[in-house]
Amino acid sequence: MAQPEVALAESGTLAAFGFGAGTSDNDDPRWLRVALESFDAPAPIELWQVDAPVVCGRQNDVRWSAGGGWLFVAIEVDEQMAGGIEHAAHHAYAALRQFMGTRNERHVLRIWNYIGDINRGDGDAERYKQFCDGRAAGLGDFFATGFPAATAIGHHDRQRTLQIYLLASLDAGQAVENPRQTSAWRYPRQYGRTSPGFARAMLMPARDVLAISGTAAVVGHASAHEGNVEAQLSETLTNLEALLTSAGMPAGFDTHSPLKAYVRHATDAGRVRDILQQRLPGVPVLLMHGDVCRSELLVELDGWRYA
Ligand code: 3EB
Q: Rounded CA gap, 58 and 120, in Å?
C-alpha cells in the first residue's frame, strides 16, 4: 500500500498524490488522495519536487505549499455541503482566485479537476456543464489574460467531492494551442452555455517542460470515432503529435514523459494498455479509471513532455 510519509519527509517535496481507495490519509497540506482508481493498482505515489525548501499551510478550505518560485494549491469541496456541483465549482474557483491574490506566484500554469458522476444529466443539465458554469462564475476575469492547461475527469467515488489542484509559478509560461483542435474557449453553443476555459498545453517558464492538458479524440470541435476506443486513442495520439509540433518540441514521447490515460470502461483498459505499449514503447503511462467530460469520448491522455 502506498504510504505518503516517506515522500513528504523528503526535502523539497511540493506535493504528493495517491490514487484510489488503497492510499492512506494524511493531514499534511501537501498530500492529496485523488479519487480515481488506477488499473495499475497500487498506483505509485506521484511526487512533485523542487530544488528549494518548501513551506506549506492552510487558509480556510484551501491547502498550499510553496518553494523555489513554485506554488501548489488544492481544494476539495463536498457537493452536499455546497448545494450541488455548480455551487461547488463556483465556491472552489472563487476560493482559489481569492487565495492566489495573496501570493506572488500568480501565474497559474496547470489545473486538474476531478468531478464525481461527470456525465449525469442531459443537455445543459449535464453535471460537467454545470461545473463549467460554476467554474466560470467563480473565476470571473481571473484568466482574462490567458487560460492555464487543464484536465477535467470524472471519478467514481460515492462521495461527490470536487477535487481541484493547481501548479502556479512566479514566472509566466507560454500557452500552446493545437491547430487540429478548436480552442476550447471557442467551442460552439452545442457543448454548453459556458465554454471550458483551458489551453491545450503550457510550456513551463524555463521552456524545459510542456504540461499537456487532457487530450481526447476531438477534431475541430467535434468528437471523432464515437464508440470506437481504438480509433479514439489513435486520434488522440495524432492530436498529441500535433501539439508537440505546435509547441516546438521534438516529436514523440520518451521514458521521461509521464502520461496518464483515463479510460471510461474497465473492459477497455487492457486494449488501451496494449496499444499504448505498442505506440509509445517505454513511456510511463499510468492507466486510470475515469470518465471523459463528453459522454461519447472513451479515452483521454494528459501528462508531461520534457524538452
Ligand atoms: C476536450 O478536448 C476534452 O473543462 O477543463 C479537456 C481538458 C477537456 C480540460 C476542462 C476539458 C477540460 O474538450 C475535455
A: 32
